[in-house]
């Protein structure tokens, strides 16, 4: 009987430890996303779809220690994104660039290749966001334009919180660069490409 009571006590203690571990996990998102000012792109786009490489297809917050384990991609044990990076990025881009009434017909595809915190030393880190973008016309799926983006931002602190804040800034900078690139394609000076005309619904 005493053995049974002891086993039950150990099991209860184990469950309590597990619950504490789960509740101690910190969940991060990209913060409040504001629509881009003077948004000229709404009239050209119908949708923005974001896809990610397989190793980014989870809510893990990933980092790499360049100074100690260059080939190891690691995850924070007690910190998570609220959703996979592709979902977070897609939500941010759509809210920032498709606010209002999106009346266009072109589709924007974003392939996310990197979304991680990089430690150059034990006390210094930065974040990296890398993506490939394609603008496709409404009919036939012809690619009107494509471009690769690579952004890096320093993290204020060498931990998950610092990485999350820096990646939120990188996403905002990416959306600005993306918006400006698309706006450049819409200028009459762009040879053979006027997306205001090509992306009419």
- Radius of gyration over all CA atoms, rounded: 22 Å
- Which class best fits the helix and strand makeup? alpha/beta
Distance between the termini: 76 Å
CATH class descriptor: Alpha Beta
Roughly what fraction of the amino acids lie in strands? 25-35%
Q: How is the main sheet built?
A: 7 strands, mixed
- Average pLDDT: 83
The named CATH superfamily:
ABC-type transport auxiliary lipoprotein component
**SSE string, helices as H and strands as E:** HEEEEHEEEHH
Number of strands: 7
Shape field: elongated
Could you say how many structural domains there are in total? 1
Share of helix, binned:
25-40%
Given as residue ranges, the uncertain stretches (5+ residues, pLDDT < 50) are 1-20
**CATH architectural label:** 3-Layer(aba) Sandwich
Helices and strands, with pairings:
Blueprint: H1 2-23, E1 26-28, E2 45-52, E3 60-65, E4 69-81, H2 85-97, E5 106-119, E6 125-136, E7 143-154, H3 160-185, H4 195-198
Parallel strand pairs: 1-4, 2-5, 3-5
Antiparallel strand pairs: 3-4, 5-6, 6-7
């Amino acid at each position: 009987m005493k053995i049974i009571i002891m086993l039950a006590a150990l099991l209860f203690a184990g469950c309590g430890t597990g619950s504490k571990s789960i509740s101690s996990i910190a969940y991060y998102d990209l913060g409040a996303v504001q629509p881009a000012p003077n948004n000229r792109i709404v009239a050209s786009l119908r949708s923005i779809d974001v896809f990610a490489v397989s190793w980014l297809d989870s809510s893990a917050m990933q980092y790499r220690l360049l100074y100690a384990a260059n080939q190891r991609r690691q995850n924070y044990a007690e910190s998570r994104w609220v959703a996979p990076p592709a979902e977070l990025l897609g939500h941010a881009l759509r809210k920032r660039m498709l606010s209002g009434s999106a009346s266009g017909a072109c589709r924007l595809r974003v392939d996310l290749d990197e979304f991680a915190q990089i430690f150059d030393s034990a006390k210094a880190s930065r974040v990296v966001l890398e993506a490939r973008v394609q603008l496709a016309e409404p009919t036939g799926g012809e690619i009107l334009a494509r471009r690769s983006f690579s952004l890096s931002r320093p993290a204020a602190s060498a931990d998950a919180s610092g990485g999350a804040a820096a990646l939120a800034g990188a996403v905002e900078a990416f959306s600005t660069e993306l918006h400006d690139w698309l706006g450049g394609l819409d200028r009459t000076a762009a040879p053979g490409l006027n997306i205001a005309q090509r992306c009419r619904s």
